[in-house]
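User: Structure please.
Assistant: Input sequence and predicted structure:
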Amino acid sequence: MSLKGEMRRLRELDWRELDIKEAGVWPWSLQLLCCLLVLGVTVFGMHWYLASPAKEELDRVRGQEAQLIRDYRSKAAQAANLEAMREDMQNLESRMEVLREMLPTGAEVPSLLDNISEAAIDNQLSIDFLRLRDPIADEHYTERPFDIQVKGDYHRIATFLADVASLPRIVTLHDMTLVVDDGDSQRLRLAMLARTYSYRQSEEGTQ
């Protein structure tokens, strides 16, 4: 059968009367088109059902690969700097040990208060009070606040503050107020909150 005749049959075909049960008598070109259509749908369905999940898995694995490469590079850099990091850790531990030695134990706090009293007396200041507040426990240390109030002239008070700051034990100064003394306009009254700290593990180790 010629191609022209086949094309004529397609043009003369009433598409509304086509019945799938009579597909065997359809023009061969129409049968070929239907076969190609079925094949295309089948290939698309297989790709969607089989290839798409595999592609998603591939994308997921590629994402994991990128993360693993970043982790490897990070760990490789850490390994290359391991000796420097160990040296830094030793330096930090040494500094921490020095700072721990500057923290008084609970038993040493009274002696620290005596040192502060002596600093006030040495600077010819009169002490109104020097009293401890209740300690405040933290995870690694115990905060030991105490109130100080002294009287004297401006320069001697300044020297007293410098002496307290230079004590071998750590003392921090807070909430300072400096006013003219009510009883003597030539003198000043300094009131402040001071804090020292005790390392809790050291205290527990001595118990």
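The mean pLDDT is 80.
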